[in-house]
Amino acid sequence: MNYDHILIRYGEMSLKRNNRKIFVNQLHENVRLKLHDFSGIKVKANRDRMYILLNGQDPEPILDKCKDVFGIQSFSLAIKTDNEVEAIKEAALYALENAHAKTFKVTTKRIDKQFPIGSQDMNQVLGGHLLSNTEGYTVNVHQPDVEIVVEIRPEATYITSTKIKGAGGLPVGSSGKSLLLLSGGIDSPVAGYLTMKRGVKLEVIHFHSPPFTNERAKQKVLDLVARLTEFGHTIQVHMVPFTNLQQKIHQHIPHGYSMTVMRRMMLRISEAVAKQRQILSLTTGESLGQVASQTMESMHAINAVSSYPVLRPLIAMDKGEIIPISKEIKTYDISVRPYEDCCTIFIPNAPKTKPRLEKVEFFENQLDLEEDFQEALQQIETMEVTANRSAEFQDLL
Amino acid sequence: MIYLDNSATTKPYKEVLDSFHQVSTTYFGNPSSIHQLGTEAEQLLSAAKRQAAQLLQVKEEEIVFTSGGTEGNNTAIKGIAYEHVNRGKHIITSRIEHPSVLETCKALEGQGYDVTYLPVDEVGRVSVSDLEKAIRSDTILVTIMHVNNEIGTIQPIEEIAEVCSRYPKLYFHVDHVQGLGKVPLSLEKIDLCTMSGHKIHGLKGTGVLYIRKNISLFPLLHGGEQEFGYRSGTENLPGAVSFVKALRMTLEKQSQDKGKLADIRQALSEKLRDMEGVILHDSEHHAPHILNFSLPGFKPEVVIHAIEKEGFIISTKSACSSKNKDESAVLAACGLPKDRTTSALRVSLSYSNTMEEIHSFSLAFQSVKQQLSKVMG
């Protein structure tokens, strides 16, 4: 006897009606990709539950991986048995003896109405069996150390004793795609993570200004994306060379307005990339009032160049709420690496916190940036970051 | 030539040398430089660190690459002693530690530290209750080796760790140089642990010191704050990478060849046990790769040279610290009589040794013993 399955319970997607199949299929695919490295296991999905057949694999690392998959409400190690009372008794006994517990309770869920014994009666039968075959355990129906859950389904019965909280949200890929503007700071990876939580698949755009920004800044971005792939497997990254545009803006736009114009240019380029890639929205790590470019007036002036929806999952969050998430998802330590990025060079001393749209447009009209804009678009370097990058340096190590 | 002195050093794996060579030529940038070459070097260094952490089941920030066992032991012991001198100046170790531990402790005694050297029983084990009795309110460090390099005794590290964990002001350091890859050790309750590359078919001048997260140490080397400030100096990237490769290969061998070393050792000990005049230093607490035995009446140096002529490399272990240059301080600490402490020999195995080699060794040893007994016996 052994725990031979992991039973996965769906989150919000279980509320969907007609589209549920799409969500379930996406989750199935995501779980399969996430567990790709474990040989011999099988992932099976049906309307209400997903099952991972362990086939002898150590469950611990697999459970660990499941924690990062969006769309999972909770999951449990499970023993699968036939719908026979004796087999269920035996499995329940195993589950109890392998839990660190003194008190327990049995909860039977009879989904298969053909099963001859009712749920309440089954609780009695199993509770009695456990008490008479063990020593030192007592039943506590209100606050048990362990709850042995017996799910009798038409195809089989599953016995579980622990429930691990899942990541929640919707399976990545079930809500379309967004282009995340990733700077290298603390906020944008968190924004990406929260967007993915709602089922959105990401592509990433990053602006860099060689030779003013160096290889490490670029690597930092790739490392951040690598962390995000833990929640979404594969992410395309578009590296935009931004030096010429930045220099021109710096030289020709009054300093108070250069930041606003720069941001507008970034947004224009992002929208153009999104259009090319058939992505329907942009995502940023903006949080209201955090810096000059994130005031109401700034956002208004910057956003005026794009008609695309801009998702801002952090808009109402304090820094003190964002940092714990970045630590939790392990992007914090990467984000605080001290390399220059294109937002920190050429930064004006006193950017306007209340830029006026007419003024911004007036200054911009004095300059012809179209050629540089097209050039930047053409020179975009696109790369793909995939989870399990461990192949790197493998021959050396 | 059949090499049976693997506790002194091991032959580097070819793959390890290849790796060293390739890293030296391709990734020669300084990991602290910010240009492309430096970036690649840094990435490789962190990949090496990540892999080492994974293999040892610890965190990346707990791995510090060193130049080997002596540096690891010095960094751990002096690092704790100097950093935490305000808590106390008492250190506990055993009488049979490696010189890099014993000499470091002696040096600290010269600076006003107080060191308790625990005795060992006749097979070389320290007693956990002795250790607990020795702990005082000003004890800051317990440093005990995992496997003894001369006689192969395995110390009760887990029980010692258990005791130490009850004293929050006290750090526990383990010299794991001889045990690595041969005798499993969980780092879970250990604060600091020394490992060396050349004992696991890596290169000399490479090693790792495991330092549990959030332990502050006074560094031996101040400078550019490399290795989290525990060990400044430009990282030896080829060394670090080759160490991790040797570690991976050795741990793989350890899990594949379960019991092979112990079987070979067992076969050898049975052969030697049957030989007249041979006294084994053996017990249930001995590592599977070291067999120490005495041949009273025979000068070990002479035996070694004679057996070398037959094509076998083994060693004596005459501790330099002993007044009598032929006497083993470790065996003396076990309370063994002089005729045994001055005639000890050591055979130490690696995963590349075979049963056949051990059979031919015992035959050769038998005949060398007979020849020599005409002269010396």
How are the SSEs ordered, and which strands pair?
The complex is a heterodimer of chains A (397) and B (377).
Chain A: E1 5-10, H1 20-34, E2 42-45, E3 49-53, H2 59-66, E4 72-81, H3 85-97, E5 103-110, H4 119-133, E6 138-139, E7 146-152, E8 157-160, E9 164-168, E10 177-181, H5 187-197, E11 201-208, H6 215-232, E12 234-241, H7 243-252, H8 255-276, E13 281-283, H9 296-303, E14 310-311, H10 319-328, H11 332-335, H12 357-365, H13 370-378, E15 381-386
Parallel strand pairs in A: 5-6, 5-7, 10-11, 10-13, 11-12, 13-14
Antiparallel strand pairs in A: 1-3, 1-4, 2-3, 4-8, 4-9, 7-8, 12-15
Helix pairs in contact in A: 3-4, 5-6, 7-8, 8-9
Chain B: E1 2-3, H1 14-26, H2 36-56, E2 63-66, H3 69-83, E3 90-94, H4 99-109, E4 114-118, H5 128-134, E5 139-145, H6 157-165, E6 171-175, E7 192-196, E8 207-211, H7 237-256, H8 260-274, E9 279-281, E10 290-294, H9 300-309, E11 312-313, H10 329-333, H11 338-341, E12 344-348, H12 355-375
Parallel strand pairs in B: 1-11, 3-4, 3-5, 5-6, 6-7
Antiparallel strand pairs in B: 2-8, 7-8, 9-10, 10-12
Q: Decide which structural class fits the backbone of chain B.
A: alpha/beta
The span between the termini of chain A is 39 Å
How far is the first residue's CA from the last residue's CA of chain B? 27 Å
The helix tally of chain B amounts to 12
| Main sheet summary of chain B | 7 strands, mixed
Q: Residue-averaged pLDDT of chain A, rounded?
A: 91
Strand order of the largest sheet of chain B: 2-8-7-6-5-3-4
Total beta strands of chain B: 12
What are the main properties of this structure?
heterodimer, A: 397 residues, alpha/beta, nine-stranded mixed sheet, six-stranded mixed sheet, 15 strands, 38% helix, B: 377 residues, seven-stranded mixed sheet, three-stranded antiparallel sheet, 40% helix
Task: Tell me about this structure.
The complex is a heterodimer of chains A (397) and B (377). With 397 residues, chain A is α/β, with parallel strands linked by helices. Chain A contains 13 helices and 15 strands. Chain A has helices at residues 20-34, 59-66, 85-97, 119-133, 187-197, 215-232, 243-252, 255-276, 296-303, 319-328, 332-335, 357-365, 370-378, and strands at residues 5-10, 42-45, 49-53, 72-81, 103-110, 138-139, 146-152, 157-160, 164-168, 177-181, 201-208, 234-241, 281-283, 310-311, 381-386. In chain A, the strands form two sheets. In chain A, strands 1, 2, 3, 4, 5, 6, 7, 8 and 9 form a nine-stranded mixed sheet that branches. Chain A has a six-stranded mixed sheet with strand order 14-13-10-11-12-15, sandwiched between helices. The two termini of chain A are 39 Å apart. The model of chain A has no long low-confidence stretch (mean pLDDT 91). Chain B has 377 residues and is an alpha/beta fold. Chain B contains twelve helices and twelve strands. In chain B, the strands form three sheets. Chain B has a seven-stranded mixed sheet with strand order 2-8-7-6-5-3-4, sandwiched between helices. In chain B, α1 packs antiparallel against α7 (237-256), α3 (69-83) runs parallel beside α4 and α8 (260-274) packs parallel to α12 (355-375). The longest helix of chain B has 21 residues, at 36-56. Chain B is globular and about 70 Å long. Chain B starts with a strand and ends with a helix. The chains are: A alpha/beta (397), B alpha/beta (377). The A-B interface holds A 214-216, 219, 339, 392-393, 395-397 and B 19, 22-23, 34-36, 39, 42-44, 47-48, 51, 241, 244-245, 248.
